[in-house]
Design a protein that fits this description.
Elements (H helix, E strand, L loop, with lengths): L11 H10 L3 H14 L8 H8 L8 H13 L26 H22 L10 H9 L17 H4 L4 H10 L7 H4 L1 H9 L9 H21 L5 H16 L5 H24 L3 H18 L2 H17 L3 H15 L5 H17 L3 H17 L15 H14 L3 H14 L5 H17 L3 H15 L5 H14 L6 H14 L1
Helix pairs in contact: 2-3, 2-4, 5-12, 5-14, 6-16, 11-12, 11-13, 12-13, 13-14, 13-15, 14-15, 15-16, 15-17, 16-17, 17-18, 17-19, 18-19, 19-20, 19-21, 20-21, 21-22, 21-23, 22-23, 22-24
Protein name: Regulator
Length: about 500
C-alpha cells in the first residue's frame, strides 16, 4: 500500500504510545495487518512501515483508524487517530465506539443505520471482534446516565434579563438551545408542505404518540423475528430506523420525552443487531449491540443496558467465545445489582450458565442454573416486569437448562428439560422451538436413541427451512455433524433424504 511522502516532523505521540503499549515496530505492524484482515483488508505493513510513521509519514486510507484501534484494544481506552499524531479518517470499525455524549451517540448510530440501509452486503462481511467488547462494557459499567438529553429546548427556564447577565459563553449556549421560530406551511412553500404531510423531518417536536409508534413497531418486528427468522424483515427495520427514528432523535424534545425516546431507539437498535446476528452478520450485529448499549445509557435505563449485555453474551456463546460471554454476563449483573426484578435476575444468571456450559465448567454452570431457578421461583404474578423480559418464563428457563446440559454432555437431563420446554413453549416462538428440538435430538443421539434422534432432527430441519435464519440452519448442520459416525445406519440415510428435500 502506498503512503504519502514523508513529513519532516517526527511523530512523538505515536512513539510515546508504542512505548506505553510495549510494542516493537514489527509487533505493531503485525497487529495492524491482522486487524485489517478482520475487515477484509489485505495489508502488507512491516517494521519499516512503522519506522516511516514515526518519522512523520502519514499512512493512507483507513490505516490510521486501524492503528488507533490496535492501541485502543491494547491499552483499554478509546484512542483516536489524531491522538496518535495521525490524520483523521472514517474508521472501518465504526460502531464499536462508546460515544462520549448523546449527540455523538446519535451521529454514530445513525451513520450505521444509513450505511446498513444502503450497502448491507458489505457490512455483513465485517468480522466479530472479541476484543471490541471490553471498552464498551467497561464504559457502560462505570458510566452514569447523561445529565441532559433534551434537544432544541433551553436547559432551564432562565429569564431573559438573567440570561443577558450570564457570561458570554453560557449565554450563547442558552440561545443556541432555544428552538428557532417555526415557519407556517404557507411560509415554507409547497415542497415543504408535501414533505411534512408524508414524512418526519429533523427539528420537529417529538410526541408521546411518536414514541408509542416506535414501541409498536418494535413489537411487530420482534414477532416477525420469533416466527420467521431475522432475515425476513431485518432490512425493513433498518430503513425504519433511518427514515423514522433518526429524525426523531434529531428533533425537539424535553428531558422526560428524550429519555423515553432514547429507550425506544435502544430497543429497536438492539433488535436490528439481533436480526443481524440471526443471519450470521456477526460483526454488524456486534456494532448494533454496542450502540444500543450507549443509547440505553442515554435513556438512563440500567436494566435495559444489562439486557443488551445479555444479548452480547449470547452472541459470544454462539461464536464459542465463552470467557468473554461470562464476563459480559457478570458485568450485566454488576450493573443492575440486586434491585432488578426476579425475572431479570433469572435471565442474567441463566445467560452466565450458558457461557460456563460452553467452556465445560460444570460446577460454575450448575451454580448459575440454581441461582436462575431460585430467582424465577421468587417471581410473583404482580411483579412489575419490563416488557422486554417477559419472554423469560418456565419454558425459556427449561430451554436454558437443556442447552447447558447438552454442552456438558449430560444428555438425560438435557432431554428432560428440552421436552419440558417444548411442552410449555408457545407456537409463536417458532425459531426457539427449532433450537430446542435440535437440543432434544442431540440428547437422544447421546443416549443412543438413533431412530428418535433422526426423527426429531428431520422435523426441526423442515421447520428451519420455513425461516430465514442462518442460526436455525446452523443448529441443523451441527446435528448432522454429530450424525457422521452413524452415516451408514438406515435412520441416518433416511434423515439425509428428508433434509435434502427440505434444505437443499
Amino acid at each position: 500500500m502506498t503512503d504519502r511522502p514523508a513529513q519532516r516532523t517526527p511523530n512523538r505521540q505515536l512513539a510515546a504510545l508504542i512505548a506505553e503499549a510495549g510494542f516493537s515496530n514489527a509487533g505493531l505492524a503485525r497487529r495492524v495487518d491482522q486487524l485489517g484482515l478482520e475487515h477484509g483488508l489485505d495489508l502488507r505493513y512491516d517494521k519499516t512501515s512503522v519506522t516511516r510513521w514515526l518519522r512523520g509519514q502519514q499512512p493512507r486510507g483507513t490505516t490510521p483508524a486501524l492503528i488507533a484501534e490496535v492501541f485502543t484494544r491494547r491499552l483499554g481506552r478509546r484512542l483516536s487517530a489524531q491522538e496518535l499524531g495521525l490524520d483523521a479518517c472514517a474508521p472501518v470499525y465504526a460502531g464499536l465506539e462508546f460515544a462520549g455524549t448523546p449527540e455523538e451517540a446519535v451521529d454514530i448510530v445513525s451513520g450505521l443505520w444509513r450505511k446498513d440501509s444502503g450497502s448491507h452486503a458489505e457490512l455483513r462481511k465485517i468480522a466479530f471482534t472479541p476484543a471490541g467488547l471490553v471498552v464498551p462494557s467497561r464504559d457502560w459499567l462505570i458510566g452514569r446516565a447523561d445529565e441532559r438529553v433534551a434537544r432544541g429546548e433551553p436547559p432551564a427556564r432562565v429569564p431573559a434579563q438573567v440570561a443577558a447577565q450570564l457570561p458570554g459563553q453560557v449565554t450563547a449556549q442558552v440561545r443556541a438551545a432555544v428552538p428557532r421560530p417555526t415557519l407556517s406551511p404557507e411560509q415554507q412553500g409547497p415542497a415543504a408542505r408535501r414533505r411534512g404531510q408524508s414524512e418526519r423531518g429533523p427539528g420537529q417536536r417529538v410526541s408521546g404518540g411518536d414514541i408509542a409508534a416506535l414501541r409498536s413497531v418494535g413489537e411487530l418486528f420482534r414477532t416477525l423475528d420469533d416466527a420467521y427468522g431475522g432475515g425476513h424483515a431485518r432490512q425493513a427495520l433498518v430503513r425504519y430506523l433511518e427514515h423514522e427514528c433518526e429524525p426523531m432523535l434529531r428533533g425537539v424534545y424535553g428531558e422526560q420525552t428524550g429519555r423515553r425516546l432514547f429507550a425506544a431507539a435502544a430497543d429497536l437498535t438492539r433488535l436490528a443487531g439481533w436480526t443481524s446476528y440471526d443471519i450470521a452478520a456477526h460483526g454488524l450485529a456486534q456494532r448494533y449491540f454496542v450502540q444500543a448499549l450507549r443509547l440505553a445509557q442515554a435513556a438512563g435505563d440500567r436494566a435495559y443496558g444489562s439486557y443488551v449485555l445479555v444479548t452480547m453474551s449470547r452472541q459470544a456463546v454462539y461464536l464459542a467465545h465463552g470467557r468473554e460471554a461470562v464476563q459480559l454476563a457478570r458485568v450485566a449483573q454488576q450493573g443492575v445489582g440486586t434491585s432488578a426484578p426476579p425475572v431479570l435476575q433469572a435471565l442474567l444468571h441463566a445467560v452466565e450458565a450458558r457461557a460456563h456450559g460452553v467452556l465445560g465448567e460444570v460446577r460454575a454452570c450448575t451454580a448459575s442454573l440454581v441461582r436462575a431457578e431460585r430467582a424465577l421461583e421468587a417471581a410473583r404474578p404482580g411483579d412489575e416486569v419490563p416488557y422486554w423480559a417477559r419472554f423469560f418464563d418456565e419454558a425459556q428457563l427449561a430451554d436454558e437448562f437443556g442447552h447447558c446440559h447438552r454442552d456438558l454432555q449430560q444428555f438425560r437431563a438435557a432431554a428432560q428439560h428440552a421436552e419440558r420446554s417444548l411442552q410449555l413453549r408457545a407456537p409463536s416462538f417458532a425459531r426457539s422451538r427449532v433450537f430446542c428440538r435440535i437440543v432434544l435430538a442431540t440428547a437422544r443421539l447421546g443416549l443412543g436413541e438413533l431412530d428418535q434422534a433422526c426423527q426429531l432432527g428431520a422435523e426441526a430441519a423442515g421447520q428451519a427451512a420455513e425461516m430465514r435464519s442462518v442460526r436455525a440452519v446452523e443448529y441443523v448442520r451441527d446435528f448432522e455433524r454429530r450424525l457422521e459416525p452413524y452415516k451408514d445406519a438406515a435412520p441416518v440415510r433416511g434423515y439425509r433424504d428428508k433434509v435434502a428435500v427440505a434444505l437443499g
